[in-house]
Amino acid sequence: MKGSLLNKKAENERDQLDLVPFLYVYHELMLDHCGPPSSFESPSRFSQISALIRASPYACEGANIKDEEVMQFVLRVHSRAHLAYLDSLAGSLASERSKWGCSTCSFVNEPTSSLCDMCKERQPKNKWLYFEQLDGDTTYYNSATRTASLKAVKCACKLALMLVQGETKSGFAVVRPPGHHAGRERVEGFCVLNSTAIAAEAALAAGAKRIFIFDWDVHHGNGIQDHFYKRADVFYASIHAEGIYPHTGNEEDVGDGEGVGFTLNVPLSKGTDTKQYVHAFTRAILPAMEGYAPDLVIIAAGFDALSSDPMHIFDVNQSAYSTMLSSISAALPTTPVGLILEGGYDSRSIASAIDHCAQVLFDMKS
């Protein structure tokens, strides 16, 4: 696999999407969501990958799903109260902006240091003009967040629907903000809407019967687990670091009711390296996936396990992801595979890791 798939020129024009072994789904408006410049989850995460995707012949816009179509899937995961809360925040921010009445500052996507002197003086303590902090820790909401979150959901659903309908064999929804911590009525851990869970619901509505979600983000996807915990139509499996946020995902958490046996957690100690990580996948995740025999695999693809990640939790290199994807494709050669971006906060490593994953899927599904 020489060179970058993202920079390869298509040898022939695509006539039909069902001939494409791999496809990116993306939308530029997701870049407008932001918090303070110090936040790990910032538009700069996409500084390299967005340019690579724009140059790829294997990319499509994921926002051409109508709002009313995608909302039916959103409401299977989140309550109307949750959506109303997000709408109220957008209104609150608009009202807050009107109070300032400053024609000098643009208010959106500008760091505090760029504000005029008047706005700096009038700025409330611990509050920036252009966003609100929602969960007391990590999650922020600015005037673009609702649109960006909905675009992320649309991209994830677009990919899921294309996979189920046979329009592509594999793909990667490169989205932000991430979603796997978001709950039915909970904004948490950078996450506003749970794109991965919503995409799984879209796939089920389109005809999928058994979906296997493998979450390889270094943090446990508590929002995804909570949603599917009592169900057998979606198997949720996670490899994550133990003893860190969100402090969920214990080995004894295996599901409830009809969902018993369809949740699998593999917590690993801090400092886990590539060999240990891949061994955990081979020992636990892959056999469970093969045994479940899904008709769709969705990967909640966070890249914060990489040794280069600024959180410095695991010591994993990119070969881990290539190995796991190759193993999945070999074990389930006819099963479509879709990746949805979750965490990972080193922009160069994210771009390289996503490209490696794309190359593996392109080659395996060709």
From TrEMBL:
Gene Ontology BP term (one): epigenetic regulation of gene expression
Record localization: Nucleus
Similarity annotation: Belongs to the histone deacetylase family. HD type 2 subfamily.
Hydrolase listed as a keyword: yes
Species lineage: Eukaryota, Eukaryota incertae sedis
Main subcellular location of this protein, as a coarse class: nucleus
Naturally occurring in which organism (per UniProt): Palpitomonas bilix
GO cellular component, one term: histone deacetylase complex
Protein name in the entry: histone deacetylase
Origin: domain of life: Eukaryota
One Pfam family from the record: Hist_deacetyl
Enzyme Commission number(s) from the entry: 3.5.1.98
Keywords: Chromatin regulator, Hydrolase, Metal-binding, Nucleus, Repressor, Transcription, Transcription regulation, Zinc, Zinc-finger
